[in-house]
Amino acid sequence: MALQGDMALIGDMLQFIGVFVSFSIAYVAFRGVRHTESSSLLRLATAFVFLGFGFLVEAIVGLGQVVPSFSLSETTVVVGGLLLETTGYFFLAFSHAVDVMLSKRMGAALLVFPVISLSGTQMADVLSFFAFYFVMYGVVETLYSYARTKKPDTLLIAMGLSLIGLGTFFQWLATLYQYVGVLTLLQIILQEMGLLMMFIPVLTFRSMGGVKQDGPI
Amino acid sequence: MAQYRTQVRIIADVLSTARDMNTEGEGVGVTALLRKGNMSYTRMSKLLSELVGSGLLLELSGDKISKYMISEKGIQFLAHYYAFEDFAQSFGLRL
Question: Which domain range does residue B43 map to?
Fold first, then answer.
């Protein structure tokens, strides 16, 4: 998305924070998979790998606008980045969906958000819309989990996801009204704030000593 | 509401029972593990063999019955399990 001057630079720096946070979460989740062979953690790790690469692509596209010699075919790459990001959000929502099926609950939360007609919209609009839908589904399920466990970190994740959801909503608006650069910056700021909140479980995990040995037991 | 238990959750339950009920250091019998583990004798026997084989449990053979005690490796496994369970729960997920 088109940002100009200093705003573009700030946006890019923030995108790289998103890359770091996403890959950090994916790393801890993958270690969890190796230790526990948990499919939930595998889906979580997959989600954040996709998100990390999605943010990376967007940051590189942004960098291409700041550094002239770094030019890329923007539309294709932006759609590619959005596709990665949306896939990441899909896996994040899918983790909850599987959890719902395992506990034999109905995925009523899926019905909370009405499916609207998408005909005539562009690919980027569609992807941003789906990203928003998946994130909001994740928010509902995470809040449901919080109601069950009363774990403060779960509430933080729900709040983080809400900010990301709001960010993806602005991203959607930004794809519709491409001349509004502020919307894109606002989207990145909200998204990064949300991701930083999601980084807290990684910090908690580290402060508890993490896991010293790698590999299955 | 009944919840589906994954294999790793069942292993963690058996190991934590073997750890918590071993108050006198003489190990825990199959009956106690069955009571807490909520599974059939056949399934429990198979699981115990696997856990002893992988070094997570120690088998203390008595005159008539075997008793089980959690090993150092089992204690490490539980610590890792709880750390990752906490991490997954933060994201609203179950292991």
Answer: 7-90
| pTM for the structure as a whole | 0.78
- The reply to whether A144 touches chain B by the CB within 8 Å rule is yes
Let me know if residue B77 belongs to a domain. Answer: yes
User: How distant is the Cα of B12 from the closest Cα of chain A, in angstroms?
Assistant: 10
ipTM above 0.95, yes or no: no
Digit-coded pLDDT (tens) for A76-127: 777 788 888 888 888 888 777 666 555 544 444 444 444 444 433 467 777 7
Residue A160 · residue A190 · CB < 8 Å: no
The string of DSSP codes covering A105-153 is ---THHHHS-----TT--HHHHHHHHHHHHHHHHHHHHHHHHHHH--HH
B81 touches chain A (CB under 8 A): yes
Domain tally, chain B: 1
Which residue stretches of chain A have pLDDT < 70?
1-8, 65-74, 97-122, 175, 178-180, 208-217
**Residue B23, domain CATH:** 1.10.10.10
Closest to A38 (Cβ–Cβ): which among B1, B88, B92? B88
